[in-house]
Prior knowledge:
Layout: H1 3-17, H2 30-39, H3 45-58, H4 62-66, H5 70-77, H6 84-100, H7 108-112, H8 119-130, H9 139-148, H10 161-170, H11 176-190, H12 209-212, H13 230-242, H14 252-255, H15 262-274, E1 279-281, E2 284-286
Antiparallel strand pairs: 1-2
Helix pairs in contact: 1-11, 2-3, 2-8, 5-6, 9-11, 13-15
Amino acid sequence: MDRTRLAGVVIAWYDRHARDLPWRAPDATPWAVMVSEFMLQQTPVSRVLGPWREWLRRWPTPSALAAEPVGEAVRAWGRLGYPRRAQRLHAAAVEIVGRHGGEVPADPDALRALPGVGDYTAAAIASFAFGARRVVLDVNVRRVLARLDGGADTPLGSPTAAERRTAQAWLPPGEDAARWSVAAMELGATVCRASNPGCDSCPVRTDCRWRAAGRPPGPPRPRQQYAGTDRAARGHLLQRLRDRAPGDVLAAADLVHGWPDAAQADRALRSLVADGLLTAAADGYRL
């Protein structure tokens, strides 16, 4: 398999078909890219676009966010889900101000040292914001490489050492590496989808080993349920405070109002306080 040629084909396809996403714009700052990477974790692009624009309007720099209380970050996160991401993004902004002069660092190791930044996020920011030659392995890239090169559907769990070696082998030299990473991600998101893949419109369909093998299914994926879970209870409680003015305090009885399971609501309340997403006050709780 001529990986260099095929990477070039995917990049050329991306140049013609890429979605117009604001964090991909030439003038997007490293901070704008970083915010997008936090928001896009386990959240589709369609839900991120509006909150991302509002976030950058309000906090165009790490310094602007760091100057606000963490509760305002959690409030602004709205219904994106997994609100600890907002808490960690705020903590990362504080670190960027304190350790890096208010500028998002380009070095992947410095990025990885920031709160909420793991291997993938560090590589993505380094690649997409600074053009670094790094392996960027999100679920879309993993699926493209598993199918195209490995002839199998996306593996479950965290990326393996073997996957990372394969991804490294696909990286083109120089500036094309970052273009390849975003192009492979786009191909996985819009064509080489997990379900109903658009193989007929794939630019590398004639070289795809998975397609040649008859598109064998991968292992079944567990379905995630949200309604009625502790996560849903936490979201309900947070939304009760997001709907209030900044600094408002709600008594515990008012905060859990509307949630049918009192024991679950109490458990959710205690976990939110333990995680630092809610603060206990003398007469109730606030963000």
